Amino acid sequence: MQDRDWDDLRYFLAVGRTGSLSGAARRLGVNHSTVLRRLGSLEQQLGVRLFERTPSGYFMTAAGEELRTRLGNVDEQIESAQRHVAGRDTELSGIIRITTTDTLAFGLLTPLFVEFGHLHPGIELQVCINNAFSSLSKREADIAVRPSNQPPQHLVGRRAGRLASSVYGSADYLRHAPRTDRLAEHAWVGFDDSLAHLGQAQWMEQHVPADRVVYRVNSLAGMTQAVVHGAGLGLLLDVLAESHGTLERVVPAIGALDTDVWILMHPDLRSTARFKAMNEFLYARLSNHPRLRRLSAADH
To answer: What pLDDT was estimated at residue 249?
Structure first.
């Protein structure tokens, strides 16, 4: 098989895995038109249509399914080999793709990323802020920094600290709010349905009547902004709230809602110098960060 033939097959498999040209383009690090051109080239060479194009995405035809079956997991084997070779790298240079949530990026990590870049100018950081897990096994990212009490078991990593949550209100809101300790009599900023799985959302459902929630949002950072501007009380992450001098803590941190902060990577990459350096740097900074709860010796 010629190199170009294999390249066309890589594009075919990427479209099959992601279900779209844009998803395949992101995975392969190319533009949308390149994926379309290479897929068209493969279909012309084989004389069959491999995908049905619909408004909701690309779906394999019978011919496409047969080709994918014959290829088996060859692309996964090649990606594994690439990770293994990358693990031999010993120089602090190259690219690190790191993914994290908006909460951690805005509340903790951006200054640390900048500091790391100054320490290692030969490394280029590519930061993806995404509240859904990017796939480390498929090399959509090299390192993930995530809040989770149940991280994926196939990844290696360690906990660096815990995020705490407390009830806050802005000084302006509290000046005009009802003079009562009854939380149910206050206006609240709450979570929309996309965040209903969070422990914080479940706590609010138990303690705050639904008709007292006057503002809902699908982002913890967005909730913090709403509370800052006086919409009502909010159950906020301390790491976000403490950066705003106008917020006052109304209810102390609720220990049952603590969330671990994990630094995660694929096992094949842990011996690569630049990834190891970033891992060690982030752990050193986060495990002593004043806005994170420290772990006990038994937690490590």
So the answer is: 95
Q: Return d(Cα 31, Cα 232) in angstroms, integer.
A: 44
List, for residues 74-131, the tens digit of each pLDDT value. Answer: 666 666 655 555 555 555 889 999 999 999 998 899 999 999 999 999 999 999 998 6
CA atoms within 13 A on the CB side of 215: 20
Which stretch of DSSP H or E encloses residue 41? helix 32-46
CA Rg, the chain, in Å? 24
Identity of the residue numbered 291: R
Q: Which string of DSSP letters, residue by residue, matches 174-196?
A: HHHS-S-S-GGGS-EEEE-GGGT
pLDDT at 1: 43
Strands in 141-277 per DSSP E = 143-147, 156-163, 165-170, 188-191, 213-217, 233-237, 247-251, 259-265
The domain made up of 85-155+261-293 has a fold known as D-Maltodextrin-Binding Protein; domain 2 (3.40.190)
Pairing of strands 259-265, 156-163: antiparallel
Are the C-beta atoms of 140 and 133 separated by less than 8 Å?
A: no
> 165-257 adopts what CATH topology?
D-Maltodextrin-Binding Protein; domain 2 (3.40.190)
- Token match 């995908």: residue? 51
In degrees rounded to 5, what are phi and psi of residue 182? -80, 110
Q: At 120, is the secondary structure helix, strand, or coil?
A: coil
Domains 85-155+261-293 and 165-257 share a fold: yes
Per residue in 150-176, pLDDT (tens digit) is 887 777 888 999 999 999 999 999 998
Q: What DSSP string describes 130-146?
A: -SSPP-TTTTS-SEEEE
The interaxial angle of helices 110-119 and 273-286, nearest 10 deg, is: 130
pTM strictly above 0.85: no
